[in-house]
Amino acid sequence: GLPLADAAVVEHTFHVGNLTISRLGHSQVITAVNGQFPGPKLEARDGDTVVVHVVNNSPYNITIHWHGILQRLSGWADGPSMVSQCPIHPGGAAYTYRFNITGQEGTLWWHAHVSFLRATVYGALLIRPGPGKPHYPFPTPHGEATLLFGEWWNASVVDVERQAMLSGGAPNNSIALTVNGMTTGGYELPVRHGETYLLRLINAALNYQLFFKVAGHDFTVVAADACYTEPYDTDVIVLAPGQTVDALMRADASPGHYYMAAQVYQSLANATYTANTTALLWYEQHDVATAEAATAGTSMIVMPTMPAFNDSETAQGFYGSLTGLLPDGKPTVPLHVDTRMLVTYGLGVMPCSPTQTLCNRTRGSVAASMNNVSFQLPTTMSLLEAHMRGNVDGVYTRDFPDRPPLMFNFTSAAAGSNRSVMLTSKGTKVKTLRFNTTVEVVLQNTAILGSENHPLHLHGFNFYVLAQGVGNFDARTAVRSYNLVNPQQRNTVAVPAGGWAVIRFTADNPGVWVMHCHLDAHLPFGLAMAFEVDDGPTPDTILPPPPPDYPQC
Ligand code: C2O
């Protein structure tokens, strides 16, 4: 191994600009970092300080989010546009993101957090064990590989988003899935027989959950969202947008060529988009026959048998099987809950504004909401800056409801015929939490305008997933299924279509933290809310002031 040094500063410069690349025979101008697609891989160790100077020479407003980084006392570096910062303007404006990695190991990623730009502005963020603790909690693998799954459009993704917002519907489907930016067959992973590889899997796709398999090979999942899990053996891995999985794979098949495949998992009834993509795994001690077959593109390469594109049983089976690895064998779930919330979310409708042209005058326009509030980003300053100023400017209100305005049959599509159930209003509402209090949120997916598995991502915290299920949440029966001993920790939970999940976390990080659907179209539709966490009592629990180059709107 490498000699161990003390915690280091990992410093990078990200030049964001136009890049012309060619995929599927089409040349496309995309927004990219340092002329690379996907962008640079960031590697650090727990305890390191990460410093990234972002210089924006693209035609668009840019922010970068470090997805899953806890950002303890560094909320100014979190990145969601208009939540933690105003965007970095085009024309060479710059902002330096600076944060410490505090007690985190595993696979995370970074991505643009403004409009649809994360479709091309993203990369891996790998955290290895720090100097004090040089080992993984599993046998050291012989090698590792990072696989970033994405989506590709033969179009500007900003135009794709504009079209979706104007139509009030789903965005045009991407035309291909990608692995490390490459379409089918582009990415190759050579392995050596008998060795074990750590696969770092990241779902950077905008709108689709994925199944992942490798023909002839099984996995042991060891982490999800950079939180260690009890080793879990499986031949299929499920990733919602935003989620990551670390899995060990033994190269123990007969030497040859094998396909690795990612395929869309659709939880939406009547969905038709079933794209998949492949990459190639091959043994360095290849036998000549399969190597030649691979070159000739013949069928000697084994394809994995994928689950059906709508196989929710496999998806929920995977999610429900993960448990957390207990540090020192001791449970860490907070058992006392200070604040309990029931948050319903899904698609609803909003009355048309008088000037809105593309709007159904009887029904209204499509709006996504949480507890019937369709989240509206501020325009004059970030929520975090407003928070630091004590909200004297009235940028937000503190009345995000703890419960939905109406209780109804959340999972019945028939409820959607009741307009009062569907009707949402716009608001910039936060839920204020006292420092170090504990919160339990029941996330109830609703099905009144199409039932879909929405992956909810919380910034600034990892949370415990205590339980999940289908149908309407019923506390009397659900409580019995809570795992309070070794639940998995995550930053993104894929709440089952027409179902629920219960999460718990401790509000020990002062600042403003957004929780939103990681299907990218749903964030501008308003499927978001924010937690405002007060400062704590001691100097080391107070959010410091913003850095001097903090962007202004
Ligand atoms: Cu990965 Cu708020 O996002």
Q: Sketch the major β-sheet.
A: 6 strands, mixed
Q: Helical segment tally?
A: 6
How many structural domains can be distinguished in the coordinates? Answer: 3
What is the average of the pLDDT values?
Answer: 92
> In the CATH classification, which architecture of the largest domain applies?
Sandwich
| Annotated CATH topology of the largest domain | Immunoglobulin-like
**Strand fraction band?**
35-45%
What's the name of the CATH homologous superfamily of the largest domain?
Answer: Cupredoxins -  blue copper proteins
Radius of gyration: 23 Å
Structural class: mainly beta
End-to-end separation in angstroms reads 47 Å
Report helical residue fraction: under 10%
> What small molecules does this complex bind?
CU-O-CU linkage
**How would you write the strand order of the largest sheet?**
10-9-12-17-14-15
Low-confidence stretches: none
Highest CATH level, the class of the largest domain:
Mainly Beta
How many extended strands? 32
Shape: globular
